[in-house]
Design a protein that fits this description.
Elements lengths: L1 H12 L19 H16 L15 H12 L2 E4 L2 E4 L2 E4 L12 H7 L18 E8 L4 E8 L12 H20 L2 E10 L8 E12 L2 E10 L5 E11 L2 H5 L2
Antiparallel strand pairs: 1-2, 3-4, 4-5, 5-7, 6-9, 7-8, 8-9
Bound molecules: decanoyl-CoA.
Length: 251
């Protein structure tokens, strides 16, 4: 068990270093033996380690603000220089309904380990009903941005988003950011100031910034603003502590 968890978190830690890289299948005509071997290996790999469904991609429930902001940041993930496409300053992070699906073989692991468990923010199957979001990270600026559309199941005060749901998103985005920067972490402290309510169904932007890193501690601040950036909804600071796999096993 400890070994499989070790493998699992090795995959998880790859989040910060090009997790989604896969062997491309070369074009058919004129393929060499080596190329077809590569293709077979890739096919075998995808059979043995099926890709989990990425829930951070657009679906039909996404409104105009959500789509506009997604397309804006997505366009910054790739830049064209002298006719060639290069990685841009931003990167979209994939998102699954269990964190262990980041590991190689995570789809199978997910069936073996507490098979009914689901990531809190990704456990509602009805598209658009709860948390619709996508996270982008900018390594150079050490910054994360999340575009979040809050569905009708997240109601707190009538017509508005529950404070716990907002806290959940802040913890998730700041936690993802801290993981990206520092590997495996747990939230030790989260302070939130709610400045103005968020309407149900609206799209907001969460921005997460690295304040400082000290040994095991990663300090992050986060703010939530309206889609056009004109209104501040929420501000937060958080402390994440780096942990080891044995911390999780012993939990
Ligand atoms: C890719 C997808 C990623 C998705 C991200 C999802 C993010 C979700 C994140 C979470 O929700 S995690 C779940 C909620 N958090 C927890 O359940 C954590 C529960 N708490 C613990 O397990 C432990 O308290 C913890 C691991 C955080 C710390 O215990 P340790 O024994 O490792 O640390 P220790 O108590 O020795 O403290 C280490 C340092 O941190 C400081 N510290 C600990 N807790 C603190 C605190 N709460 N506030 C301020 N400082 C704190 C402590 O003072 C000390 O400072 P110094 O080294 O300077 O002396």
């Amino acid at each position: 068990m400890a070994r499989s968890l070790g493998q699992m978190f090795k995959g998880f830690l790859r989040l910060g270093s090009g997790l989604t890289t896969r062997t491309p299948c070369p074009p058919g005509p004129g393929s060499t033996h080596r190329a077809s071997l590569l293709c077979t290996t890739a096919a075998l790999q995808s059979f043995l380690f099926p890709k989990p469904r990425d829930l951070s991609l657009p679906n039909s429930s996404w409104g105009p603000d959500m789509m506009r902001l997604y397309e804006h940041y997505n366009s910054l993930c790739e830049v064209e220089t002298e006719g060639e496409k290069q990685p841009g300053p931003w990167r979209r992070l994939p998102s699954y309904n269990r964190i262990l699906k980041y590991a190689t073989g995570g789809v199978y692991l997910s069936k073996i380990i507490q098979s009914k468990a689901r990531l809190f923010t990704r456990n509602i199957k009805q598209q658009g009903a709860a948390f619709e979001y996508v996270v982008f990270v900018n390594k150079e600026e050490q910054k994360c941005v999340c575009v979040f559309q809050a569905g009708h199941l997240l109601e707190g005060p009538p017509g508005h988003v529950h404070g716990g749901a907002i806290a959940t998103m802040i913890d998730s985005v700041a936690g993802t950011h801290a993981t990206y920067l520092s590997g495996l972490v747990l939230t030790a402290n989260l302070n939130i100031n709610y400045r103005s309510p968020i309407s149900l169904g609206s799209t907001v932007v969460l921005e997460s910034f690295l304040d400082k890193k000290e040994d095991r501690k990663t300090f992050i601040s986060c703010k939530v603003t309206s889609a056009d950036g004109s209104k501040l909804h929420t501000e937060a600071t958080a402390l994440f502590l780096s942990i080891t796999v044995s911390n999780i096993i012993g939990m």
